[in-house]
Amino acid sequence: MSTWLITGCSTGLGRSLAEAVLARGHRAVVTARDAEAVRDLERAHPDTALALPLDVTDPAQVAEAARRAQERFGGVDVLVNNAGYGYRAAVEEGEDADVRRLFDTHVFGPVALAKAVLPGMRERRSGAIVNLSSIGAHVCPPGSGYYAAVKSALEALSTSMRQELAPLGISVTIVAPGGFRTDFAGRSLTQSAHPIADYAETAGKRRKEHDTVHGTQPGDPAKAAAAIITAVESEQPPGLLFLGSDALQTYSGVLDARRAELEAWRELTVSTDFDA
Predict the structure, then answer these.
(1) Among 87, 146, 147, 199, which one carries the catalytic annotation?
(2) Is 151 a catalytic residue?
(3) Strand extents, DSSP E, the chain
(4) Is 260 part of a structural domain of the chain?
(5) Confidence of residue 186 (pLDDT cuts 50, 70, 90)
(6) Domain span holding position 39
(7) Is 85 a known active-site residue?
(8) What CATH code is carried by the domain that includes residue 136?
(9) How confident is the model at residue 1 (pLDDT cuts 50, 70, 90)?
(10) Contacts of residue 177, Cβ cutoff 8 Å, sequence gap at least 6
(11) Rounded-to-integer distance, Cα 142 and Cα 202, Å
(12) How far apart are CA 220 and CA 267, in angstroms?
């Protein structure tokens, strides 16, 4: 039995993961900005679930969640940084306050949580950190530059952390889902308030009022939750795990395109070395 701390458990993948972890007999600190949204999980599993309020951008709540996890269950074995939301805007349209909040939620919040639980993991020489990214970090579609940026930053930090923590018995896994049937493209999706007409045919096509994806995504959140648990419990958890056939196909195309461009510009690339 291990103890999981999962952020963003009110809906979507976080909710599915919390349910799956508890169903398998593990302990779970289930969190949401409004703890009442996850109180039913605590009632259903009174001995193994702890429902807490957690806004990942609030340092005091981050520290309190780690303290309560230690007090109730003796620490955190698996941290899942799942809380987040989408943001769509052309880069020029992005509003400073919105962009800062996006980085606070998707980058600085997960880092703060990792720092809060790592002392205990290092002391035990065991643990796992799972950071939720997105296929968008690798595709960077128009209109999602800021969202791709925060997920790319989280992936870079995770990759370095993986190398820093592996010798200490702690794994770090980036999970990059494709499209899953959650609220991500619905209630959880935000966007710039003032669109610019010149971007109507690029970023504008991905604004909420033009989005037809919500409710038709191929991914099943329950299956994603099971896959994450399998990865965490494996002997060698992956550094980067894509979820969904669409994510696999899309990333394969990205790799092929990057390899083709690398080869096309090989001569110019190597021309910058000193002559032998």
Answers:
(1) 147
(2) yes
(3) 3-6, 27-32, 49-53, 78-81, 86-88, 127-132, 170-177, 189-191, 240-243
(4) no
(5) low
(6) 3-245
(7) no
(8) 3.40.50.720
(9) confident
(10) 13, 132, 134, 135, 219, 224, 242, 243, 244, 247
(11) 6
(12) 45
